[in-house]
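Record type: monomer structure entry
Structure origin: computed from sequence
Chain ID: A
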Amino acid sequence: MKVARKNVVLLGATGSIGANTLRVLRKHQNKLKLIAVTAHSNDQKLADICQEFKVPYATLTDSSAYKRAKAEGRFPSETQLFGGNDALIEISTLEEADIIVLGVVGACGLKPALAAIDMGKEIALANKELLVLGGSFVIDAAKRSGSRLLPTDSEHNAIFQCLEGHCNEDVEKLILTASGGQFRDAPIQKLDSVTPADATQHPNWSMGQKITVDSATMANKGLELFEAHWLFNLEPSRLEVVLHPQSIAHSFVQFVDGSILGQFTPPSMTFAIQHCLLYPHRSASVEPTLDFKQSMQWDFRAPDLARYPCLKLAYESLYTGGNALAIYNASNEIAVERFLNGSINYLDIPRIIDWCLSNDTNSVATSVEALIEIDALTRKLANAFKSSSV
């Protein structure tokens, strides 16, 4: 069956999500066409992407990078270049766009995504902040417009696939798997000596520095719990996390009759990204999948919350609700940034999150602007934390 070619907008084209999305686009050029890309400041890499894919629209959100690229004429003549964060909205609402891959990091993706959702565009979710920060607003907007939210996180994509054809009343619980990161078996007493170099080397996945640190602390799994809550409309008591060091079983859905469905692929982001971009159709994968004729071992166990205080704080935030999810996300982002630049200790990451959450007034933001203000205030508070060990 011939399938209409989809026009793709890629926000965050020069990061790890962007790189894996481009791999899928190269594989399926007859089914997918890249019509717009964005980056923050990597003008040369973005220009190279535009040259390779003959992209008609591009945006650099960093004003210096935009001015430099314009002055030096780095982009192909057929590419129209925009500058600044506001241009993300213009790029995301192009009339001809079919699907928006939200690969930008931080709250800057919220307004462009909401604008695209209001137009009924498909959204491939690769930005945690969209649901962590603006969950209720995003879900309500998608219901109004009929926009389809397609998760590219391997865990949520796995759940999405397993839930097709089932309703929430059929579901006992969702089980999100986690690798446990690079320190899952290290003595807890040695975690205070973890360095940024240690924490940015993941045993299974090839990812950016921030998400690799989040995997080590399991803050990423906390954020994924928040996303699962909004995406699948389930209360915290029906969301579970288990350690699975091999990162092959990406998540499970346990149904009320005791049956459990899972989804399995090698640890590569291309499988989930391709599923979203081509949905509801399927095609050959970018890289080889599992071979069950080969011997393999899969292990599962409960996470130790003493080893992973960030996960414990995430569960508490989910039960608290209100602004707690946004505060958790913003404080963790600053904490990881500070750890990577050497101004705090590895174990200060959960301390900063806890400290910021303890300053929460338990109010509920009633607008996107209020959420963005809470995000900004939390970042200031997290930057003010004084480490006693560095």
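Annotation 1: The mean pLDDT is 92.
Annotation 2: The domain at 6-151 is CATH 3.40.50.720 (Rossmann fold).
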